[in-house]
């Protein structure tokens, strides 16, 4: 084996060597027939057999048949751990001992009995269990292949999801053309409250915490609140292992060539034998990377340092449950130095040149301009089942977000932050849920929140946004009908929000000799600098509604339709920002006259589940009245800190039309083809023109070779993917500081295996993104004016699960 690797170890054939490491062990595939064992999953209350339940261990993962059973070939004797879960049941973990003969084992699952999960997942697993809201579930197996990536980066595997970037290291998810305050992120059931208004403010959440991630594409503001008009991202950690005293965990290591990234993570969880109603979990991760390299040059000061922790514990009894959760997120991120330019002449030259004048070099240090972010989240939730079978669910969460942005400043003052924000947020939710007969389910709830955001003094810079206090309350009702071939849902919600903001800034008045303000074009006047207060009180309220249905025409064909009415009040940055936004290297100006956005979205999806061909195709239309967007003003502003392009918040009526396609075709047991495509069309209806910063059309094709199992190597695979991104031609000439870049084509490969080891398994994954080191620019990257995107990146991942 080593001799073979030496022969092919030339740089351009590295992936062939990696392929051989993962695939050659599989050539020794064993044909030995082992005694069969059967595992049956049943309802603990009435012994009903449960079909389509997921049963998994370290050496298999299957779903039960119509008789609630799976059959596997025994690969060794001894003890092993099994996890089983099914819809509407508590999951269960059991240890079995296999002897040298065929054996049947039984797992009993307890019904939820109207117990509400920490998060009610309204989506479906892709090509699997469908609901009325169009959504996709990324499983733990899919997330394993993206360890070390940002949240936005790993979500790009979902059709219709892209990301808006600020350079090579800061990214936010975009769902059907919308991002930031139009996308709501729930971390373990809690709405993430940070400085999400900034396009350069990445979500303050560690994706390594997730057991699965659900992306809801519909406007589901009834269930989740005003900011869910563009979509919802649900980050779900593993469930606590009640009743399982064994210690379970996972340790993983990740390395990447581009940026010389290294990352590590670990999680531990267990129940307690003497207290079977108690369980706990600990998790932590960290990563460090230096300057990213494009195909031709380094992007200086683009490193990232990150460290995260979380802990959870809970008690679950027959009629009530209590869980607590806490997490800490910290990140320091460099901002590409080539975006901070001293004067307008140099700025024009850099935009015309399209690439940095300096080739750069690699280093891990992070200098100004940079960001430092700390985010703490604490949650307590409780559920109690009433005598009539209904359920009360209460949740309280507290979050604190600290954000510091450091600019290039003279006389060594870049050690002081130019922006220093402190956000404290509290959220409380109380809901009641009950099932009527076998088909109806009702949910009623109330919610309240309080947020305060202050600019810490001492920066020596006028804050970009004023201090503010925001509070609100809501009441909602959801009714759901479930039948054999039909699922229908309707909901209504009312929200009220209050905003009180106050700040001070310098402004200039053009006055005559008497100090009276006169028109700027009148001769004989002078500009004088004054300090003034701005902000004030604003009240917002509106109604959200949703109506959706899933029609199961046959086992192979399903159709869903979902219509939603949603809204979003303008945020403080949209109303009052005025000055340099350091992270995005731009000057932003708000408009205090902005009003609330009102959205009307209709999305329809067709699903097909065939023996070989499975696909889903969604088409949607969304009209947003008083749509708020950040428009390039085609002006530049120069100050002592440099020259920067100016952007202005504006409002118009907009329409979004689009379609997402995901399909798989299984040629054979070994080979599977996958196709993903998405397109968005967005127009300014008032001014009859295209909207700015809308994702370009994207098409992805991939083939997976499931190589086969051997005695020592399982789940061996090799993937190759082609990703084609078109040029954004739906663009208004002379409306941006640089026209959209050309389209580009990337090729990615990945391979992996799993090696059972004792009661656990070692998993190895390798991937090469941008295999041919293509030089390209992404339209949604706000630093595309000055630089290209990331070049070839080789990633290696290893984890041990036990």
TrEMBL record:
GO terms for cellular component: cell outer membrane. It is found in: Cell outer membrane. SUPFAM superfamilies: Porins (SSF56935). Coiled coil: none annotated. GO terms for molecular function: siderophore uptake transmembrane transporter activity. It comes from the Bacteria. One of its GO terms (biological process) is siderophore transmembrane transport. Residues 135-232 form the TonB-dependent receptor plug domain. It is a multi-pass membrane protein. Residues 1-28 form the signal peptide. Pfam families: Plug, TonB_dep_Rec_b-barrel. Residues 370-771 form the TonB-dependent receptor-like beta-barrel domain. Keywords: Cell outer membrane, Membrane, Receptor, Signal, TonB box, Transmembrane, Transmembrane beta strand, Transport. InterPro entries: Beta-barrel_TonB, Beta-barrel_TonB_sf, Plug_dom, Plug_dom_sf, TonB-dep_rcpt-like. Belongs to the TonB-dependent receptor family. This is TonB-dependent receptor. It comes from Haoranjiania flava.
């Amino acid at each position: 084996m080593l001799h073979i690797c030496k022969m092919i170890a030339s740089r351009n054939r590295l992936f062939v060597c990696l392929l051989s490491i993962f695939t050659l062990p599989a050539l020794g595939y064993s044909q030995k027939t082992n005694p069969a064992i059967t595992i049956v999953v049943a309802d603990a209350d009435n012994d009903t057999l449960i079909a389509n339940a997921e049963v998994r261990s370290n050496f298999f993962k299957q779903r039960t048949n119509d008789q609630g059973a799976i059959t596997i070939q025994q690969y060794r004797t001894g003890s092993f751990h099994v996890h089983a879960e099914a819809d509407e049941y508590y999951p269960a973990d059991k240890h079995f001992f296999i002897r040298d003969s065929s054996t049947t084992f039984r797992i009993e699952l307890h019904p939820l009995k109207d117990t509400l999960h920490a998060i009610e997942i309204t989506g479906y697993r892709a090509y699997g269990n469908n609901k009325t809201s169009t959504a996709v579930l990324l499983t733990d197996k899919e997330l394993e292949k993206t360890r070390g990536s940002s949240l936005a980066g790993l979500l790009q595997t979902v059709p219709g999801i892209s990301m808006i970037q600020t350079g090579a290291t800061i990214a936010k998810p975009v769902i059907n053309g919308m991002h930031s305050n139009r996308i709501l992120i729930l971390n373990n059931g809690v709405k993430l409250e940070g400085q999400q208004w900034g396009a350069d403010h990445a979500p303050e959440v560690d994706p390594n915490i997730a057991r699965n991630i659900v992306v809801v594409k519909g406007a589901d503001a009834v269930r989740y609140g005003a900011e869910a008009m563009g979509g919802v991202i649900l980050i779900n950690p593993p469930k606590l292992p009640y009743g399982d005293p064994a210690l379970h965990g996972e340790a993983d290591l990740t390395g990447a060539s581009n940026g010389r990234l290294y990352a590590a993570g670990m999680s531990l969880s267990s129940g307690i034998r003497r207290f079977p109603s108690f369980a706990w979990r600990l998790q932590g991760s960290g990563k460090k990377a230096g300057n990213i390299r494009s195909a031709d040059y380094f992007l200086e000061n683009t490193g990232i340092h990150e460290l995260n922790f979380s802990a959870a514990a809970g008690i679950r009894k027959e009629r009530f449950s209590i869980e607590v959760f806490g997490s800490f997120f910290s990140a320091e991120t460099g901002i590409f130095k080539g975006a901070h330019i001293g004067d307008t002449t140099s700025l024009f030259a850099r935009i015309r040149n399209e690439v940095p004048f300096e080739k750069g070099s690699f280093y891990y240090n992070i200098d100004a301009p940079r960001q430092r972010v700390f985010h703490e989240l604490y949650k307590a939730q409780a559920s109690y089942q009433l005598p009539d079978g209904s359920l009360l669910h209460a949740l309280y969460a507290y979050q604190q977000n600290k954000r510091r942005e450091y600019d290039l400043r003279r006389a060594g003052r870049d050690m002081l932050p130019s922006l220093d924000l402190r956000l404290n947020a509290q959220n409380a939710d109380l809901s009641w849920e009950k099932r009527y007969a076998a088909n109806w389910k009702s949910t009623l709830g109330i919610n309240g929140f309080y947020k305060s955001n202050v600019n810490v003094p001492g920066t020596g810079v006028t804050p970009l946004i004023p201090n503010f206090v925001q509070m609100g309350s809501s009441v909602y009702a959801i009714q759901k009908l479930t039948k054999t071939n039909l699922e229908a849902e309707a909901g209504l919600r009312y929200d009220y929000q209050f905003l009180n903001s106050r700040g001070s800034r310098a402004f200039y008045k053009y006055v005559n000799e008497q100090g009276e303000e006169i028109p700027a074009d009148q001769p004989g006047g002078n500009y004088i600098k004054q300090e003034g207060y701005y902000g004030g009180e604003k009240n917002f309220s509106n109604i959200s509604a949703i109506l959706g249905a899933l029609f199961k025409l046959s086992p192979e064909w399903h159709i869903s339709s979902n219509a939603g009415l949603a809204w979003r009040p303008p945020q403080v940055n949209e109303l009052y920002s005025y000055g340099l936004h350091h992270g995005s290297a731009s000057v932003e100006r708000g408009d205090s006259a902005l009003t609330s956005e009102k959205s009307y979205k209709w999305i329809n999806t067709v699903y097909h589940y065939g023996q070989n061909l499975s696909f889903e195709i969604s088409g949607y239309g969304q009209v947003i009245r008083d749509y708020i967007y950040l428009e390039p003003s085609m002006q530049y502003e120069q100050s002592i800190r440099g020259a920067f392009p100016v952007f202005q918040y504006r409002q118009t009526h907009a329409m979004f039309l689009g379609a997402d396609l995901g399909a798989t075709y299984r040629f054979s047991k070994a080979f599977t083809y996958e196709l993903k495509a998405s397109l968005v069309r967005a127009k300014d209806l008032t001014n009859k023109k295209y909207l700015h910063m809308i994702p370009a059309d994207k098409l992805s094709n991939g083939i997976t070779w499931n190589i086969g199992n051997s005695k020592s190597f399982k789940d061996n695979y090799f993937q190759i993917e082609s990703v084609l991104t078109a040029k954004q031609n739906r663009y208004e000439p002379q409306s941006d500081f640089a026209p959209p870049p050309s389209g580009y084509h990337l090729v990615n490969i990945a391979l992996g295996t799993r090696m059972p080891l004792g009661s656990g398994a070692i998993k190895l994954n390798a991937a090469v993104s941008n295999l041919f080191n293509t030089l390209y620019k992404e339209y949604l990257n706000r630093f595309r004016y000055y630089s290209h995107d990331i070049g070839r990146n080789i990633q290696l991942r290893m984890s041990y699960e036990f």
